[in-house]
Amino acid sequence: MRRQEKADRIGEILEELYPNPPVPLDHTDPYTLLVAVALSAQTTDKKVNEVTPALFEAAGTPEKMAALDPEEILGYIKTVGLAPTKAKNLWLMANQILDAGGEIIGDWEFLESLAGVGHKTASVVMGGVFGVPAFAVDTHIHRLAARWGLSNGTTVERTEKDLKAVFPKETWSDRHLQIIYFGREYCPAKRHDLTACPICSWAATKKRIAEESR
């Protein structure tokens, strides 16, 4: 099966399973989404959602976040991965936003210039808030794209390029969320029986199935 045919069929399955996928991180506005996504690096969404209610109650705006010091911020997020670095970045980010006028704007260069914000985080905000087609690729999507034969890229950047080439532009922002939800429900990283998976069973190569069954 050609790569494009695979992508078309996968898209149909994902649309049927998750027609309107919500962002799995709790937030109320562009700023709190930006903070939540930045916190989610190397941390589960569940853990982020556990710490953000108290954090956002104390510092749900750039002004309030900047008014705290990094040690105070760390007190709210200490259970997430890389917490000390993230606390410093949240404080720096808040000050950068204030210096730029105090608003989150839908501009790639602006978002990616913020402390702790990489391309993946910017992609989630651009797609989720500003409706700009963006395909946020994390390690989970990178893994599934390889399993399904949609990309053989060795980096998330290459995988992003490959996925953008086979999925329609208007689906990108939803598609990355659909793949995340599918991975959680049907396609985990470890102890996964590819032959029983609704997508891997037909999309993965025999070589891939054999490799992961060892």
Automatic annotation (TrEMBL):
Residues 39-185 form the HhH-GPD domain. Belongs to the Nth/MutY family. GO terms for molecular function: 4 iron, 4 sulfur cluster binding; class I DNA-(apurinic or apyrimidinic site) endonuclease activity; DNA binding; DNA N-glycosylase activity; metal ion binding. DNA repair enzyme that has both DNA N-glycosylase activity and AP-lyase activity. The DNA N-glycosylase activity releases various damaged pyrimidines from DNA by cleaving the N-glycosidic bond, leaving an AP (apurinic/apyrimidinic) site. The AP-lyase activity cleaves the phosphodiester bond 3' to the AP site by a beta-elimination, leaving a 3'-terminal unsaturated sugar and a product with a terminal 5'-phosphate. Binds 1 [4Fe-4S] cluster. Coiled coil: none annotated. Keywords: 4Fe-4S, DNA damage, DNA repair, DNA-binding, Endonuclease, Glycosidase, Hydrolase, Iron, Iron-sulfur, Lyase, Metal-binding, Nuclease. Its cofactor is [4Fe-4S] cluster. This is Endonuclease III. Signal peptide: none annotated. Pfam families: HhH-GPD. The gene is nth. It catalyses: 2'-deoxyribonucleotide-(2'-deoxyribose 5'-phosphate)-2'-deoxyribonucleotide-DNA = a 3'-end 2'-deoxyribonucleotide-(2,3-dehydro-2,3-deoxyribose 5'-phosphate)-DNA + a 5'-end 5'-phospho-2'-deoxyribonucleoside-DNA + H(+). It is an enzyme of class 4 (lyase). CDD domains: ENDO3c (cd00056). Its EC number is 4.2.99.18. SMART domains: ENDO3c. InterPro entries: DNA_glycosylase (IPR011257), HhH-GPD_domain (IPR003265), HhH_base_excis_C (IPR023170), Nth (IPR005759). It comes from the Bacteria. GO terms for biological process: base-excision repair, AP site formation.
